[in-house]
Amino acid sequence: MDKFDYMREAMRQADLSAQEGEVPVGAVIVRDGAIIAKGRNRRELGKNALYHAEIEAIDNACKTLGGWRLPRCELYVTLEPCPMCAGAIINSRIEKVYFGAYDPKAGSVASVTELFQLPYNHRPKTEGGVLEEECSAQLSAFFKTLRTQK
After folding, report:
1. pLDDT at 148
2. pLDDT tens-digit map of 72-86
3. According to the model, what pLDDT value does residue 149 have?
4. At what angle do helices 53-65 and 3-19 cross, to 10 degrees?
5. Catalytic amino acids?
6. Mean pLDDT score across all residues of the chain
7. Which end of the chain is more exposed for a tag (fewer CB within 10 A), N or C?
8. d(Cα 130, Cα 72) in Å, to the nearest integer?
């Protein structure tokens, strides 16, 4: 599998979110070439601001590996991480983040700010724009459907 395959799996997680009426954001965590955790946006269902795709994936990866550090792990997420998720990524020591769509309103890896460039004790590598058009289209379609329903 390659980065596009992993991002497509994150997009499948985002599809599940959309089916539940959530903003379609999905994430997977990969270690040594295998997906070890998945997550998706569940803020509306859970009525909780913390239920972002990245947070769920990190939580699941920590449970899978039995610790809070996620060495040799890569995160694939369909939307650029927000400040909360960027902080969780730093704290969990994820080595690299691949994201699809840029987020000009809340993106904290490249768009609004670049938290991974600050002098924290860990600085994940990043690659943005992986399947960017597909990830952006997924979000646009969801919001178009919402507007149509109203």
Report:
1. 87
2. 999 999 999 999 999
3. 82
4. 120
5. 54
6. 97
7. C
8. 20
**Residue type at 8 in one-letter notation:** R
**What's the burial of 21, exposed, middle or buried (CB within 10 Å: 0-12/13-18/19+)?**
exposed
The candidate with the shortest Cα–Cα distance to 85, out of 103, 63, 67, 109, is 109
Cα dist. 111→48, 82, 83, 106 in Å? Answer: 25, 10, 11, 8
- Cβ–Cβ < 8 Å for 71, 101: no
Place of tokens 């987020």: 103
- How many whole angstroms separate alpha carbon 97 and alpha carbon 85? 11
Where do runs of H (alpha helix) occur along the chain? 3-19, 43-46, 53-65, 83-92, 132-149
Please say whether the beta carbons of 14 and 137 come within 8 A.
no
- Which one, of 43, 110, 39, 51, lies nearest residue 76 by Cα? 39
CA torsion angle 9 14 18 19 (round to 10): 30
Q: What is the pLDDT of residue 48?
A: 97
**Residue 8, class by beta-carbon neighbours within 10 Å (0-12 exposed, 13-18 middle, 19+ buried)?**
middle
